[in-house]
Design brief:
Blueprint lengths: L3 H8 L1 H8 L3 H10 L7 H11 L14 H5 L1
Helix pairs in contact: 2-3
Length: about 70
């Protein structure tokens, strides 16, 4: 499985920041958090697919459905 840092290094922080319309500091914050914001998924998934990288959903801060998870 890839990590947030591995994906950022493989794609490039500047490339990701530009594609996402965020600062390089935002990319660094995601690396520190070891998770990408959920709303970055579509762009990061596309960038990963273009490079043959695994883009695991677990690397994103999606909200969990507490009712479903309790079942």
């Amino acid at each position: 499985m890839s990590t947030v840092q591995e994906i950022c290094n493989a794609i490039g922080r500047e490339v990701l920041a530009s594609a996402l319309g965020v600062s390089r500091q935002s990319i660094s914050n995601a690396i520190s958090d070891a998770a990408f914001p959920a709303n970055w998924y579509e762009i990061i998934k596309r960038e990963c697919d273009d490079r043959g990288l695994v883009c695991d959903l677990l690397l994103f801060k999606f909200k969990r459905n507490e009712k479903r998870d309790a079942a």
